[in-house]
Amino acid sequence: MAHVPLARHLLRAKDLADARYAEPLTVQDLAAAAGLSPAHFSRQFKRTFGESPHQYLLTRRLERAAALLRTTDWSVADICFAVGAGSVGSFTVSFGRIFGRSPQAYRAQYPPAEWQVHIPRCIAQAYARPQNRTFREDPATPASLGCSE
Amino acid sequence: MIKIANTQFWVHDQDEALQFYTKTLGWEVKADVTMEAWNFRWLCVGPAGADSPGLVLMPVPGPPMLDTEASSTLSDLVAKGAGGTLFLETDDCQAAYDDLSARGVKFDNPPTAQPYGVDTGFRDPSGNNIRLTQLLEFDPARGT
Predict the structure, then answer these.
(1) Contacts for B124 with CB less than 8 Å, ≥ 6 apart
(2) Are B31 and A113 an interchain contact pair (Cβ–Cβ within 8 Å)?
(3) Cα distance from A129 to chain B (closest Cα, Å)?
(4) Closest Cα in chain A, distance from residue B41 (Å)
């Protein structure tokens, strides 16, 4: 059987963190994916990738949270749980440590999400059109006359 | 240069679709913004980490975008599987099948050898068709 470099096993754990960060993953889960004991795994992971598996998983979650802050209108709590962070309190502290400001302040640096997502003109034209379009043309619906605003 | 930015499925329930694409398939949310004034929600998802077009999950519209009859017809067509197909590629169809099966995806057929590769498929909760294919490298001797 061909020799498989240790880094290839470690990469499986890194890929797992990238794919499943939103789930309640632990360092033990990552170690199992690499087929190593947790202590040995943590040492080798840090030696190979330059940071501990815990740090990698945490920063992956924070990076994804930052993306959701920019591209959705979800609440901070919803984003916190969507990326697999355990509690809003610890999430906010970790976020501030990495990004230098609170999640709310980070979001405020960017244009509103609806500007970020480039909703196509055809959608805006279809959905932004006022829904009351009778303009006294339809005598059967007198209650709906006039502007709905 | 022109590239595909996003593609789109009609869905019956955006929350249900969001749950399926993120929790079951493990995809990421690329955008989720509600325009209250328009009664419209732009919801876009895609495979984690992939630099590929997003899939916009749009609710079947009612009046005034579509009249009630057309809306109902479109909703029925999606439920009947006539809404459209998304073609996905993977480098290991069997592994993806095993992984997604364990996450609760109900496949239409197990990975099956085709002239072009190994292929399987499933549907989203609304009935939209999703194919998952591992392409074979071109082999002149095989002629495909």
Answers:
(1) B9, B11, B17, B20, B21, B130
(2) yes
(3) 8
(4) 10
Instruction: Give the pair of three-digit tokens for residue B78.
Output: 């999606």
Q: How far apart are CA B89 and CA B121, in angstroms?
A: 11
pLDDT in tens, A73-96: 999 999 999 999 989 999 999 999
pLDDT digits (tens, 9 = 90+) for B111-134: 999 888 999 999 999 999 999 999
Nearest by CB: A72 against B33, B61, B64: B33
Give bridge partners of residue B40 from the DSSP assignment: B35
ipTM: 0.73
Give the other-Cβ count within 10 Å of A126's Cβ: 15
CB nearest A18 (choices: B31, B38, B48): B48
The model carries a pTM of 0.79
pLDDT score at B22: 95
Between residues A120 and A69, the one the model is more confident about? A69
Would you give the DSSP letter of residue B128? -
Of A114, A123, A119, give the one whose Cα is nearest residue A71: A114
Chain A nearest CA to B63, separation (Å): 8
Which tokens in the block code for residue B127?
Answer: 């009935």
Contact A64 B28 (CB under 8 A): yes
Which among A19, A73, A131 has CB closest to B33? A73
Alpha carbon distance B127, B123 (integer Å): 5
In angstroms, the CA B35 to CA B41 distance is 6
Contacts of B33 (CB under 8 A, 6+ apart): A71, A72, A73, A113, A114, A116, A117, A119, B41, B42
Residue with tokens 């470099």: A5
pLDDT(A9) > 80 = yes
